[in-house]
Design goal:
Elements lengths: L1 E3 L25 E13 L2 E16 L4 E5 L5 E5 L10 E8 L8 E9 L3 E2 L1 H4 L4 E11 L7 H4 L1 E9 L7 E2 L4 E5 L2 E7 L6 E9 L8 E5 L4 H16 L1 H5 L7 H46 L11 H10 L5 H18 L2 H19 L4 H50 L10 H14 L1 H40 L7 H15 L1 H7 L26 E2 L14 E2 L1 H24 L8 H15 L13 H4 L19 E9 L4
Helix pairs in contact: 3-14, 5-6, 5-7, 5-8, 7-11, 8-11, 9-10, 9-11, 10-11, 11-12, 12-13
């Protein structure tokens, strides 16, 4: 199946600029505008709406008039901020462009395959086997701006390490491990069609949304700054898209204090647990090979001596240094994982704050209980998965380690076990150095790290689940203005959960069912919860605010969440492509050179208030195209950045 992410919307509003300057005043200020443009693809279908965050820099005081577009594509004037802007001031607005009005400069086509044949994305989700992701990025012929010629498209997505440990891609693809995910990054070329193929052997396949970002840049530093700025705006899109923070101020302030406290606890716990684990692991490996060395006999050879390894295994049933080291590393591993619980709790609070800012608290307590059930159940499964991963990883790791250790030790002793103990520490150091540099041995080490990260993520998820129940109690109490007894109530809830099981508790508590959703069905059962769709007047939505229309926010909230999810992927992609903000991969260097050459051809903007007139002033880009994504009437637009996001599997 081919999924088209072309954003190839009809260009009814994107044609020629109006001919008469008097019809479209530009205000009295001198200002420049940059745009961050976000587009969403839902389940293989273009949603059609573009979210455009506009940033204004005021160079000379006065009024700034910016134009959106109406449903029929006509320019609609808005005075930014509703009043005069001072010199040096900055302002921002959001424009939401309805389906059928504008096209993105880049089209993105995504195909999936499973064990060879192309399949629908739904067939890949949860599947086992060889998964292929085939992405083509091309200039969009329906776009009425020239940004496809001057921007650098970057593709990025993640796959959990529990799904796969290795991903291959087309030439120029960068694959790195980022926590519990494999991060995949590829760079397209300005003004060209570029195709990429990615393959991995999956177990219960899942992956993040596919993020495609495009920015202009003349060097690596500018690329890094622009991409980071785009990701930062994406991560905070809700701040201007929905204007949160006006609900339950007392509750929000309490939650923010709780979040900050949990973050402090997480930093302290992780700072203590991680070095302790590293020391315990070092001590374990030292005890392991020291015991192994003591059981060596005769000619050592260049690989693990199985009789010596069996001798070490026999010591595990007694009170020996290696047995104590095994217990210590087990405890340290658990402590390292448990230290992430506070981070999970902080993340749960932060997400709840965002939800309250987006939608208020109506029906939220039930939603939080339902999320708690899901998170706690998944945490238990993921921790078991991590334990199995560790078991499967440590066997080849230990064998590879003793092979390398034996080889180094043999060279030092001349191949004999006699006097080998005297060289043990030196051989351990050489082995550790080899594990840090040898590609095959590093892969063994990465599998151990992936197992650790999976267990840590599971404990973080467990921390989320526990905190979500506390939050549910707080939110429920906030409806009566009483949050003082919420923690005690939450503690009682958690005792009930521990005793009876979370799923049963959620059902008994009516989790997922709001009071006004309970319907009489003969048996007295509650009806399932309906999706919550709150409504609120939106600021700066292309012509809608002036008409006073109440817009349905449910779609907006989903889109904002998708964009904010992709933001972190883009930030990590920047760190991979330009780790120090100066050096860059060869693919990125080539793309920057091409973008710089194309940008040099773009003529300087023409003053909209000059005698040239609005028609010429609106066509300030290369080959007569506008720099403004919404309408060429906006002659103050200096540039734009783009982020396109698909659904996750």
């Amino acid at each position: 199946m081919t999924v088209s992410f072309a954003m190839t919307l009809a260009i009814a509003a994107g044609g020629a600029a109006p001919a008469r300057e008097a019809e479209y005043p530009s205000g009295t200020a001198v200002a420049t505008k940059t745009q961050d443009v976000f587009g969403i693809l839902h389940a293989g279908t273009i949603s059609g709406e573009l979210y455009i965050a506009n940033d204004f820099q005021i160079d000379q005081s006065g009024t700034v008039i910016d134009y959106g577009v109406s449903e029929d594509g006509e320019p609609v004037a808005q005075t930014v901020g509703g009043e005069e802007q001072a010199t040096g001031a900055a302002a921002n607005t959001l424009t939401r462009v309805s389906s059928g009005l504008k096209a993105m400069p880049w089209s993105v086509h995504v195909r999936y395959s499973l064990n060879g044949p192309n399949v629908d994305s739904s067939a890949v989700s949860g599947a086992n086997g060889l998964v292929g992701l085939h992405v083509t990025v091309a200039p969009n012929p329906l776009a009425d701006t020239d940004y496809a010629n001057t921007t650098i498209p970057v593709i990025a997505f993640t796959v959990p390490t529990k799904v796969t440990s290795e991903i291959t891609g087309s030439s120029g693809t960068l694959v790195t491990q980022n926590g519990t995910d494999m991060l995949v990054v590829a760079v397209g070329r300005p003004a060209r069609t570029t195709s990429f193929d990615f393959f991995f052997t999956a177990k219960h396949c899942s992956m993040s949304p596919l993020a495609v970002a495009a920015v202009e840049a003349s060097d690596t530093a500018e690329f890094s700054r622009s991409m980071t700025a785009l990701a930062t705006r994406a991560s905070n899109l809700s701040d201007i898209a929905i204007g949160g923070g006006k609900h339950d101020t007392k509750l929000l302030n309490r939650l923010k204090a709780m979040r900050d406290a949990e973050r402090d606890k997480a930093r302290s716990a992780i700072a203590a647990a991680d070095p302790a684990y590293q020391q315990a692991f070092h001590d374990y490996m030292a005890a392991y090979v020291t015991s192994y060395t003591g059981h060596l006999s005769g000619s050592i050879g260049d690989s693990t001596q199985m009789s010596a390894l069996l001798g070490t295994a026999g010591e595990l049933n007694s009170d020996t240094p290696v047995a104590r080291a095994v217990a210590d590393i087990s405890n340290a591993t658990n402590d390292r994982s448990a230290a992430r619980a506070h981070q999970g709790a902080a993340d749960a609070i932060d997400a709840t704050i965002r939800q309250i800012e987006l939608r208020g608290t109506t029906g939220l307590a039930a939603d939080l209980k339902r999320q708690a059930a899901s998170q706690t159940s998944r945490a238990a499964k993921d921790f078991k998965t991590g334990q199995k991963m560790m078991h499967d990883a440590m066997i080849p790791f230990s064998m590879a380690y003793t092979d390398a250790y034996t080889r180094h030790l043999s060279k030092m002793t001349g191949g004999t076990a006699s006097g080998a103990s005297a060289y043990a520490q030196q051989a351990i150091k050489q082995t550790n150095d080899e594990f840090a540099s040898n590609k095959n041995l590093k892969a063994d080490n990465q599998k151990v790290q992936a197992a650790l990260d999976t267990m840590a993520a599971a404990k973080a998820r467990e921390g989320q689940g526990k905190m979500l129940l506390t939050l549910a109690a707080l939110v429920a109490k906030s409806g009566t203005g009483d949050v003082s007894g919420a923690s005690k109530s939450a503690a009682a809830d958690w005792k009930t959960v521990s005793a009876n099981g979370l799923t049963a508790y959620a059902l008994q508590s009516g989790a997922g069912v709001r009071a006004d959703d309970k319907a009489a069905d003969g048996a007295g059962n509650a009806a399932p919860a309906a999706p919550l769709a709150s409504t609120r007047s939106l600021y700066g939505l292309a012509g809608r605010q002036s008409l006073g229309i109440e817009a349905d926010m449910s779609g907006t909230v989903n889109d904002v969440v998708a964009v904010e999810t992709a933001a972190e992927i883009i930030k990590n992609a920047v760190d991979t492509l330009a780790p120090d903000g100066a050096s860059a991969s060869s693919a990125l260097k080539r793309a920057i050179d091409e973008a710089r050459a194309a940008k040099a051809k773009v003529v300087a903007p023409v003053d909209a208030q000059s005698s040239v007139g609005a028609l010429e002033a609106s066509r300030i880009g290369h080959e007569g195209t506008s720099r403004d994504v919404v309408t060429p009437v906006n002659t103050h637009t200096a540039g734009a950045r783009f982020l396109m996001v698909t659904d996750e599997l």
